[in-house]
Amino acid sequence: MPIDFGADCRPLFSIESDLIFLNNGSFGAPPHSMLEAQATYRAMAERSPISFFRNKLPKYLREAAGDLGAFIGAAEGTLAFTENATTGINSVVLSVAHSLRPGDILLTTDHVYGAVRQTLNRYAEWTGAKVVEVSVPAEGSRGIGADRPVELPPTADVVAAGHRRFIGRRAV
User: Fold this and answer.
1) Is residue 101 very low, low, confident or very high in pLDDT (cuts 50, 70, 90)?
2) Residues 6+ apart with CB under 8 A from 63
3) What is the spatial distance between Cα 79 and Cα 17, in angstroms, rounded to a whole number?
4) What is the pLDDT of residues 75-99, one digit of tens each?
5) Are 7 and 1 in contact (CB under 8 A)?
6) Are the beta carbons of 91 and 61 closer than 8 angstroms?
7) What does residue 75 show for φ and ψ, rounded to 5 degrees?
8) Which of 46, 114, 126, 170 is 20–30 Å from 20 (CA)?
């Protein structure tokens, strides 16, 4: 299913027509369909809180993770939701921090969320790893590194983190 971006998707949101809102990831401004879905889930939780939170919500979250995984091409069971970007990146980097060595690379983009950048810098200081930021063009690019490959040491392990997401860990 194609996704509209830019001005074509404006009718999907309640944002004032003369407002250019660039930070809807931080707070508010979800599309109408998401507001409707939230209202449905809130009503279910209000009708039977114990049943909803113990039995239904875990199932719904797994289904949502499966749908997201199918959309972005992630293997089933490999996604987890977190409260926010800071919690997510701390959880992921902490899970691999014990194996980070001097010279390993924490790879991110120049669009990274500030708290994620701070977390990566902190772990780099503690372990001797290095944070490498890849510049991502705003327009007309074929994707990250499509026109500017990143030179990485052939022996370094890479933990890649992006804007509100963890990409993965792999040996280069």
Assistant:
1) confident
2) none
3) 35
4) 888 888 888 878 888 888 888 888 8
5) no
6) no
7) -65, 145
8) 114
Percentage of the chain exceeding pLDDT 70: 73
Residue 106 burial class via C-beta count within 10 angstroms: exposed 0-12, middle 13-18, buried 19 and up:
buried
Residue-averaged pLDDT of the chain: 78
Contact 96, 159 (CB under 8 A): yes
What's the CA gap between 141 and 21, in Å, rounded?
Answer: 23
Question: E strands within 68-164?
Answer: 105-109, 130-134, 157-162
The one-letter amino acid code at 78 reads: T
CB 116 within 8 A of CB 85: yes
Domain ranges for the chain: 6-72, 85-171
Please give the C-alpha separations between residue 55 and each of 43, 81, 92, in angstroms, as whole numbers. Answer: 15, 17, 27
How many Å separate Cα 157 from the centre of its chain? 21
Output helix, strand, coil percentages for the chain, rounded to the nearest 5.
45, 15, 45
Question: What amino acid is encoded at 69 in this protein?
Answer: G
